[in-house]
Amino acid sequence: MKVFILTALAFLLGIDNVSTKMFRRPLLIAPIVGIILGNLQAGLIIGATLEVMWMGIGDVGAYMAPDIITGTMISTSLAIMGNASGNISTMVATAITLAVPTSILAQQLLVLIETVNCSLNGWAKRLADNADVKGTFWLTWPPAFLYGFACAFPTFLALQFGAGAIQQAINDLPKFIINGLSTAGSIIPSVGIALLMMTMLKKGELWMFIILGFVLSSYLKLDILPITLIALVFAFLYERATREPSAKAQVSPNTQVDNSNSAEEDDEEDYDL
């Protein structure tokens, strides 16, 4: 039953990826998988690890990135289902090992699906030329369903026939390989955070946030949750402060027009008197 629920989830995530794009990241997908499989803690940890690992993944021009939705679904599900012992480190190591090859294999299916979707371009152009809004709206659904199928089909095959094989493979692996994968799972988030910090350091005004986070963590000994809440407040204030000048620039011309109009009205009133 859980296999069919996870397959349906993969289908919905595929549709979401070509529409709202609200649940396409591993940080959101893996915890949902963890809830379905009854291990939310593992889902959260695996999701955070894969999110940092795939932080810079995205389609650029004609390049199609690895399918992180299918990769996250398969790797998280098999990591949790294939580790009856409940060892979190082993689950994370298994998820990392499976995530990259499954996402790259699923990428090939997405390329085929996108090729099929290109055949609809002529139909869409005819509908647009005829101003057929309703027809254009319905034409957006076939590509969405095909994309959902591209995520659901490999997920179903992997979960239906791969869980037992994954469990057996994990049991047969030497201990030093599992330890090495666990170590890699600990290093990858650090590398991702370092890359993120390199991007932040290129903007001079972001230095103060790095220093603030260091002080809160090292000197005030605050936990992650209060630091996150403080960061949320500062992020909101920073966004407001950087957006305010543009808002004033847009308002000022209107204000001048209003003042000129009011001045003209005063002149007319003086003339009438």
UniProtKB/TrEMBL annotation:
Which InterPro entries does the annotation name? GatZ_KbaZ_carbometab (IPR050303), PTS_IIC_man (IPR004700)
Tell me, which GO biological process terms does this entry list?
A: phosphoenolpyruvate-dependent sugar phosphotransferase system
Biased amino acid composition, Polar residues: 249-262
Question: Transmembrane ranges?
Answer: 27-48, 60-81, 144-164, 176-200, 206-238
Question: How does this chain sit within the bilayer?
Answer: Multi-pass membrane protein
Q: Which GO terms describe its cellular component?
A: plasma membrane
State where the protein is found: Cell membrane
Where is this chain compositionally biased, Acidic residues type?
A: 263-273
- Quote the protein name from its UniProt record: PTS sugar transporter subunit IIC
Pfam families named among the record's database cross-references? EII-Sor
Residue ranges, annotated region (Disordered): 244-273
